[in-house]
Amino acid sequence: MSTVSRASLDQKLALAKRCSREATLAGAKAAAVATVASAVPTLASVRMLPWAKANINPTGQALIISTVAGMAYFIAADKKILSLARRHSFEEAPDHLKNTSYEGAGRPHPVFFRP
Predict the structure, then answer these.
(1) Sequence ranges of the domains in the chain
(2) pLDDT for residue 4 is more than 60
């Protein structure tokens, strides 16, 4: 069993904090854009369309807008976390796993791409 040094744990913790901060910012940006993108048509339709004016009250309008913003936040933050995790796992991988090319494999394409 190998021992883990304190410096290594501190470095991993700092990396995790930086990644979560980047994901939070990406999610907040996406939520801001989604809020504007959903608020404009929602508020315009409530003012212009008779059906929307009769059936969507202010609570419904807020629910539509906040749902879109929340979904955008979590989708963007999740995508950012996954991309950062993929990048960091690739950086820490051994060299023989980093070579993903098919050079020297004997054939230019995998079997399922062969014509």
Answers:
(1) 1-56, 57-102
(2) yes
